[in-house]
């Protein structure tokens, strides 16, 4: 399979399809490359965003990660320099129009492949985003090594690759559609795919997989990307961790963390105890096998042997907790004291217990106050209840849950 076929596909069907005019209405936010995640999982929550920040978006496509990162950095006045790389001109045109609509000035566009990066001479990056790209490369490890080489020794990377189990049924469909006319023109192949989708037997693995929706939501580009891709593969957690390791990187997180914890799916201690005894990434691999619905894996990673701490430390009283979706007061209002929190993801519904202190703590999280200040304010309100020991335990429980849910991060005071 040649790279030309991958390029041709993304010239004809830029993915995901986006209309630059929508930039006036909404900002698409996600993972990887949310600024709060980058700060928390790659810069120990200590990044000074007033300093210059060099980022590369490798295989930036129609621009989702690029636009989010550029906008979030502009919003906090970060002197950012962002380089976008993609081999599809059609995708780049869309990404460029989105950036123009937002009047963001930090981005430079390059029409090139990741494999060309060494000869572009772009220098070292503090952060590299590579979302949904490695699994399309002829040699994903070679591609990741190239990105690793372009990282500053104290920098980090955010990756997304397909997850094998959540995509169950996709590859048999791809095989079948190749049998039905591998060399037909793309439009004809899409028609064939639509016809086939209407007639799938109920036992077909793809038909039985409820978590896949790109072929329903993203039009012809979605059908092409999912079922007719020129080249894609999927990873189990263990394979992704091995890929990251072989590229000279060390993972710092899988997002969202709760989905990679067996305790999110099981309560029986007889089953949980041996799984909890596994190392962190094996535990994550077990959670993947249990859940069966992870269709992508999002990971952050840093160069092996990096000198500085990567992940923020919730025991640092000077750290500033910050919520991804804004306001802690509102979040606290929606919580019954000590009630359960329901979270849904790809057909699975988890219920997590909260503690009576969660609401009062969340209500004081504003992205400015440090952990220590929040503890002091609560102690002022009710010194008998909010002793330092009680606060430490309640904060730890609140942090553990909301960080696992990918809603709470640590940063530094601005
Ligand atoms: C599924 S899209 C993902 C786009 C974007 N990162 C996102 O998350 O929305 C994959 C992109 O990778 C690009 N791509 C594929 N192989 C590439 C390569 N070798 N070098 C650079 N880009 C590549 C494609 O052109 C396409 O735009």
Describe the structure.
This protein has 414 residues and is of the alpha/beta class. Helix content is 39%, strand content 17%. A hairpin with a 2-residue loop joins β9 (340-345) and β10 (348-353). The radius of gyration is 22 Å and the shape is globular. The model has no long low-confidence stretch (mean pLDDT 95).
Per-chain topology:
Elements: H1 3-12, H2 35-42, E1 53-58, H3 64-75, E2 80-86, H4 89-101, E3 107-111, H5 117-120, E4 125-131, H6 140-149, E5 151-162, H7 170-179, H8 186-198, H9 214-217, H10 219-227, H11 237-246, E6 249-255, H12 269-276, H13 280-291, E7 296-303, E8 320-323, H14 328-333, E9 340-345, E10 348-353, H15 358-363, H16 371-381, H17 388-404, E11 408-411
Parallel strand pairs: 1-2, 1-4, 2-3, 4-5
Antiparallel strand pairs: 5-7, 6-7, 8-11, 9-10
């Amino acid at each position: 399979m040649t790279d030309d076929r991958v390029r041709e596909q993304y010239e004809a069907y830029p993915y995901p399809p986006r209309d630059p005019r929508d930039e006036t209405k909404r900002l698409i936010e996600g993972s990887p490359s949310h600024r709060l995640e980058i700060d928390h999982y790659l810069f120990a929550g200590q990044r000074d965003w007033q300093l210059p920040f060099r980022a590369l978006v490798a295989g930036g496509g129609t621009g989702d990660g690029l636009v989010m990162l550029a906008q979030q950095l502009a919003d906090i006045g970060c002197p950012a320099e962002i380089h976008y790389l993609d081999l599809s001109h059609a995708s780049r045109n869309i990404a460029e129009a989105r950036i123009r609509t937002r009047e963001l000035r930090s981005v430079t566009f390059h029409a090139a492949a990741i494999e060309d990066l060494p000869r572009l001479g772009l220098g070292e990056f503090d952060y590299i985003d590579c979302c949904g790209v490695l699994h399309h490369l002829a040699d994903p490890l070679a591609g990741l090594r190239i990105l690793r080489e372009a990282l500053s020794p104290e920098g980090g990377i955010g990756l997304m690759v397909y997850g094998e189990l959540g995509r169950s049924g996709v590859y048999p469909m791809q095989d079948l559609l190749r049998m039905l006319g591998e060399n037909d023109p793309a439009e004809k192949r899409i028609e064939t795919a639509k016809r086939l989708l209407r007639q799938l037997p109920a036992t077909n693995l793809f038909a039985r997989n409820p978590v896949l929706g790109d072929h329903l939501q993203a039009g012809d580009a979605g059908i092409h990307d999912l079922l007719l891709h020129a080249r894609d593969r999927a990873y189990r957690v263990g394979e992704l961790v091995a890929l990251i390791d072989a590229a000279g990187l060390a993972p710092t997180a899988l997002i969202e963390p709760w989905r990679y914890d067996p305790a999110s799916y099981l309560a029986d201690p007889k089953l949980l105890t041996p799984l909890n005894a596994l190392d962190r990434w094996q535990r994550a691999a077990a959670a993947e096998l249990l859940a069966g619905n992870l269709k992508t894996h999002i990971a952050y990673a840093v160069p092996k042997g990096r000198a500085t701490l990567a992940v923020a430390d919730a025991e640092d009283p000077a750290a500033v907790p910050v919520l991804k979706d804004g306001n802690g007061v509102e979040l606290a209002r929606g919580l019954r004291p000590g009630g359960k929190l329901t979270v849904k993801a790809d057909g699975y519904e988890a219920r997590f217990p909260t503690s009576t202190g969660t609401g009062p703590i969340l209500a004081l999280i504003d992205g400015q106050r440090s952990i220590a200040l929040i503890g002091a304010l609560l102690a002022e309100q009710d010194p008998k209840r909010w002793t330092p020991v009680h606060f430490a335990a309640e904060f730890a429980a609140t942090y553990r849950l909301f960080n696992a849910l990918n809603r709470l991060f640590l940063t530094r005071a601005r």
